Amino acid sequence: xxxxxxxxxxxxxxxxxxxxLPTTRMLIGGDWEEAADGRSIDVEDPAxxxxxxxxxxxTAEDVDRAVKRARAAFESATWSxxxxxxxxxxxxxxxxxxxxxxxxxxxxxxYDNGKAVHHALAVxxxxxxxxxxxxxxxxxxxxxxxxxxxxxGRQYHSYSVREPIGxxxxxxxxxxxxxxxxxxxxxxxxxxxxxxxxPSEVTPLTxxxxxxxxxEAGLPEGVLNIVTGYGHxxxxxxxxxxxxxxxxxxxxxxxxxxxxxxxxxxxxxxxxELGGKxxxxxxxxxxxxxxxxxxxxxxxxxxxxxxxxASRLYVERSVFDRVxxxxxxxxxxxxxxxxxxxxxxxxxxxxxxxxxxxxxxxxQGRASGAELxxxxxxxxxxxxxxxxTIFANPSADASIVREEIFGxxxxxxxxxxxxxxxxxxxxxxxxxxxxxxxxxxxxxxxxARKLQAGTVWINTHGMNDPSAPFGGVKESGWGREVxxxxxxxxxxxxxxxxxLAD
Length: 502
Ligand code: NAD
Hints:
The protein has helices spanning 60-76, 84-100, 102-113, 117-138, 177-191, 205-216, 231-240, 253-263, 288-300, 320-333, 352-367, 399-402, 418-426, 441-450, 483-488, and strands at residues 11-14, 17-20, 26-28, 31-33, 40-45, 50-56, 145-146, 155-164, 167-171, 194-198, 224-226, 246-250, 269-273, 278-282, 310-316, 371-374, 389-392, 409-415, 433-437, 455-458, 477-478, 491-501. It folds into two domains: 58-274 and 477-494, Aldehyde Dehydrogenase, Chain A, domain 1, CATH 3.40.605; 279-465, Aldehyde Dehydrogenase, Chain A, domain 2. The chain is an alpha/beta fold. The site of nicotinamide-adenine-dinucleotide (NAD) has 31 residues, from helix 7 and helix 8. The site of nicotinamide-adenine-dinucleotide has 31 residues, from helix 7 and helix 8.
C-alpha cells in the first residue's frame, strides 16, 4: 500500500493558498492504482478554469477488481464481525481525523468544487465529522427482535436479526463531494458493509483524501474502495456488477431512473437521493425580514447547487412585493467570488457545462415572459459565475418553474389562501423538501402535514442533522439517508425460528 504523501511537488500554489493534493489514484484494496487502460480525467478549479490535478478514469475492469477486493473483505468478516464497539472506535477515529484535517479538506473542496473555503469549513467538513461520529454509536445499537409467533401451538423461539447487506456500490454527485461521500460511507460502515464508492468525475479529490484518512484511522484494507471515473463508464459498471448487493445513489433523477432499470436485472437493492424543486411558503404573518433572508439563503447558498434548494417561492399576496424586494436585496449583497476570498458568499458554478445549462434556463425564463427582478447573467471574471437571479410571476408551466435548474435561480409567485398554495407547492414531480414561514403554529404544522416532501422546515431551511432521516418522495428518491433508517437501509432482516418442544 502506498502511504499518503504530501511531497513538495504535489503542492499547488494559487492566490496565496497552497492546496495539498491527496493521492490522485484509485484505492483498490489497500493499493493506490491507475486505471487499467491508463486514461485519466483532469480536475479543474471552477474559479479560474485552471487544471490542477488529474485522477484515473476507472474502467469496468477497475470496478471489477474493486468489487472483488470489497467482496473478499466482506467475506473475511474482519469488518462485519469485528466487535461492534471496536468497529465504532475506528469510525469515531475517522471523525477525529477529518476534524484534525478540516482546513486542508475545506481548501481542497474549494479548489475542486468552487465553494467558499469558509462555507466548506462551516458546513461540509462538520457534516462529515458529525456523520462519522453519529454512526460510530450505531455499530452497537443495531438490534433485532423476538417474534411472538402463534405458530401451530407448539413451542418455538423466533427472532429476527439485521445483517449487513454485503458489498455496496455508492455513487455521489459534485455539489457536496465530501459530505455526500461521508454520509454514505459512515452509514454503510456502521452496518458492517464493505464499499466501492465512485465520486463525481468533476470533484473526486476529497473522497480520495477521506479514504486516506480512513486507512490511517485503522479501517482494514478492502473495506473501503474508491474508483474514480465517469458515470457512464465506472458508474454504469458498478451498477451492472453482479458482485454488488446494493446501490446507494445520490444524483439527478434522470440517472437515478437509469440505475433502477439496470439494477432491476438482478434485483439489487437500491436507495436514491435525487433532485428537487422545493418550495418556500411565506405567509403574511411571518417575521418577514427573517423569512426574506431565509428564502434567499434557501435558494442561493452554494450558488443554488443544492438538492434541497428552495427554488420556488410562494408569498401571500399582501406582502408579495415587500418579500420579493427583501429577497432581491439580500441576493444583491451576496458577493460573488472565488472560494479562497473570505468575503465570498457565492462561488462559481462547478463547471462551464453547468454555467451554460443555468444561463440557458435563464434565457428560457425571459422568453416565457416572467419578470426578471434581479440577476439574469453570468458574473464577471474567468470563473463559472452566475448572478443570483429572481423571476417574478412566471407562468405555472414555464421550464423555470417545473424543472430542477441546480443553480442560483428563483421563481416567485403570489398566493391568496393556504389550500391554494399547498396545491401549487405540491404540483411538481419532485418532493425533496419544503419550508414554511409563519407565526401561526397550527397553520405551520397543518401545512407541513399536507406538503408532499421528505423534509419540511418551519421558520428555517436546510437544517440537516445525522439523527434526522433525509430523502425524498415522488421523483426525489427512494429510502432515507442518515438517522436510524439510514443505517437500516444497509441491512437485510433474517428471521430464525427454532422448534423448542412438540
Ligand atoms: P448526476 O446524476 O449527473 O451524477 C451523479 C453521479 O452519478 C456522478 O458520480 C456521476 O458520475 C454518476 N453517473 C452518471 N451517469 C451514471 C450512470 N449511467 N450510471 C451510474 N452512475 C452515473 O448528478 P450531478 O450533476 O453530479 O449532481 C446534481 C444532481 O444531484 C441534482 O439533480 C441534485 O438534485 C442531485 N442531488 C441530490 C441530493 C439528495 O440528497 N437528494 C444531494 C445532492 C445532489
